């Protein structure tokens, strides 16, 4: 089981308490689709993804970004069993959505960048380390039902 | 040969123009040592790397961070031949320093976080895409002389 120090738990609670999920989610997903364009293949039904401006203005991207960030809240609220928490979502991404699990890490990286742009100096190295630890546990949990 | 659009060149030059090499170099290397602690093994002669505060304050880390950023500037000045620009540095890292090339990506990621943190919302998705393309070309060049 993943061990979390009190300081790490506080850091994550503070970061989560400060971010606006409805704002951060869409930005992170948009950056994923722009910076790693092959990820657009998973969103064929989303309409116009033909340019950075189109992606950033696309309402389906925004909506799905919010869905993803709201799902991340499950990890924040269940830090002692992130693996169990994401068991079904892992199966969904593997069996139904057929998402290459490498892409989870890419989205995690984009999320970290968005948080860095929002927080500035407050996103110091210790906070970054804790935040990336959380995301890597989440990525691992989402990959756990892949064979 | 890597193709750069005029927009990409402008984006990358724009990012460099915002960078104070000493501060960004120090912070990027420090973050690498904090967030990916195994990288500390390459800096055994640097003194106190015991915790995040010590790493951030360590003068050897600061000096070496500046060295790394100056090395990165070579790529900026030779964007149409990054591969050959780094032949000697690639050999150095492979044969003399014996750095696992996976770590180049980790340092690049930390540098991107620091850039995002400084530029905030000016680090748009388009600029992020160009910047990450630049760093991946640099990493590829640094890996080239490994066997």
Tell me the layout of helices and strands:
The complex is a heterodimer of chains A (147) and B (147).
Chain A: H1 6-18, H2 21-35, H3 52-57, H4 59-77, H5 82-85, H6 87-96, H7 102-119, H8 125-143
Helix pairs in contact in A: 1-8, 2-4, 2-7, 7-8
Chain B: H1 6-18, H2 21-35, H3 52-57, H4 59-77, H5 82-85, H6 87-96, H7 102-119, H8 125-143
Helix pairs in contact in B: 1-8, 2-4, 2-7, 7-8
What does this structure look like?
The complex is a heterodimer of chains A (147) and B (147). Chain A is mostly helical and 147 residues long. Chain A has eight helices and no strands. Chain A is 71% helix and 0% strand. The longest helix of chain A is centred in the middle third of the chain and has 19 residues, at 59-77. Chain B has 147 residues and is mainly α. The A-B interface holds A 30-31, 34-35, 52, 55-56, 109, 112-114, 116-121, 123-126, 128-129, 132 and B 27, 30-31, 34-35, 52, 55-56, 109, 112-114, 116-121, 123-126, 128-129, 132.
């Amino acid at each position: 089981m993943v061990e979390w120090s009190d300081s790490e738990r506080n850091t994550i609670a503070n970061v989560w308490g400060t971010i606006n999920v409805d704002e951060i989610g869409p930005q992170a997903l948009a950056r994923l689709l722009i910076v790693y364009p092959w990820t657009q293949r998973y969103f064929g039904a989303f309409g116009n993804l033909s340019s950075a401006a189109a992606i950033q203005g696309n309402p389906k991207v925004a909506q799905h970004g919010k869905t993803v960030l709201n799902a991340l809240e499950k990890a924040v609220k269940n830090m002692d069993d992130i693996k169990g928490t994401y068991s079904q979502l892992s199966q969904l991404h593997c069996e139904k959505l057929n998402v290459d699990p490498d892409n989870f890490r890419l989205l995690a990286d984009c999320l970290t960048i968005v948080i860095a742009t929002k927080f500035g100096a407050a996103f110091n190295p210790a906070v970054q380390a804790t935040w990336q630890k959380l995301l890597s546990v989440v990525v691992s949990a989402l990959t756990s039902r892949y064979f | 040969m890597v193709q750069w659009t005029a927009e990409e060149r402008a984006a990358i030059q724009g990012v460099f123009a915002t960078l104070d090499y000493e501060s960004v170099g120090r912070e990027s290397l420090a973050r690498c040592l904090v967030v990916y602690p195994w990288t500390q093994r390459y800096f055994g002669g640097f003194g106190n790397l015991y915790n995040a505060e010590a790493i951030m304050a360590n003068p050897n880390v600061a000096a070496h961070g500046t060295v790394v950023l100056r090395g990165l500037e070579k790529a900026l000045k030779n964007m149409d031949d990054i591969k050959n620009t780094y032949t000697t540095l690639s050999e150095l890292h492979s044969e003399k320093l014996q750095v696992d090339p996976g770590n180049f990506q980790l340092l690049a990621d930390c540098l991107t976080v620091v850039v995002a943190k400084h530029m905030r919302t000016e680090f748009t998705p388009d600029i992020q895409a160009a910047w990450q393309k630049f760093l991946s070309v640099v990493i590829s060049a640094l890996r080239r002389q490994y066997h």
